[in-house]
Amino acid sequence: MAANFFSGRRGISLLACGTQIFVSLTVAISECILITLMCFDRYVAICHPLRYPVLVSPRECSRMAAASWAAGALTSLGHTAFTLHFRICSPREIPHFFCEVMAVLRIVCEDTSSYEKAVVVTSIFVLLLPLSFILSSYLLILLAILRMNSPEGRSKALATCSSHLCVVGLYFGPGMFIYMRPGSAKTPRLNQGLFLFGTVLTPLLNPLAYSLRNKEVLSALKKLMRRFQPSS
């Protein structure tokens, strides 16, 4: 994007377009799985603390991370190959700021309705099922928190989980709206806005969401807000 902006050249080869689709999908799918595994980490830590060293050992974490990236890469490879096998119409202008599946389908000359259904099915496995697992886990976590006798422990558990839930909402919301909405390929402007939200705003807000449970960060944030408040 930076190269295109400064050079004025906005052309892209088929290989580079395919690479963009593959990399972006691999990262997105892997992150969905990793966010779900982070929920599993919190579930075990709060509901089964004595089993935590066994279930979430460094070795198991490495395996889960490797499985996430492998699943993301394999799923992405299939969708990249299938998207690029379609015949592209002229003018070959992609209505997006980078090569993305729904944007490429917009300029295809063939009927893509069957493939769009396949995208929805993939989204069910990548987005809807993990989100259902996350919400179910957090329901069990909430019940476990309510049974805690220590107010300090309850507060700490809620702070840990709330930051992760913020990230889940920021990440899964736009993704489901883009890939699970009927006729999504026909609304390029809306998709661009949602992708901008997912690729720029979500990473920007991630450090803030994860650090809000830190007392020092909260204290610094309150001081900053007081500094900008108009004096009476």
Key words describing this protein structure:
receptor; olfactory receptor activity; Rhopdopsin 7-helix transmembrane proteins; 232 residues; G protein-coupled receptor activity; globular; GPCR_Rhodpsn_7TM; transmembrane; mainly alpha
How much strand content do the residues show?
under 5%
Uncertain regions: pLDDT < 50 for 5+ in a row?
none
Oligomer: single chain
In the CATH scheme, what's the topology name?
A: Rhopdopsin 7-helix transmembrane proteins
Q: Based on DSSP secondary structure assignment, what is the total number of beta strands? A: 0
Rg for CA atoms: 21 Å
Structural class: mainly alpha
Terminus-to-terminus distance: 46 Å
Please give the domain count: 1
CATH superfamily: Rhodopsin 7-helix transmembrane proteins
Count of helical regions: 9
Mean pLDDT: 82
> Helical amount among residues, as a percent range?
over 70%
* CATH level-1 class: Mainly Alpha
CATH architecture: Up-down Bundle
Largest sheet: none
Domain G-protein coupled receptors family 1 profile: 1-210
GO molecular function: G protein-coupled receptor activity; olfactory receptor activity
Protein name: Olfactory receptor
Transmembrane segments: 118-145, 157-180, 192-212
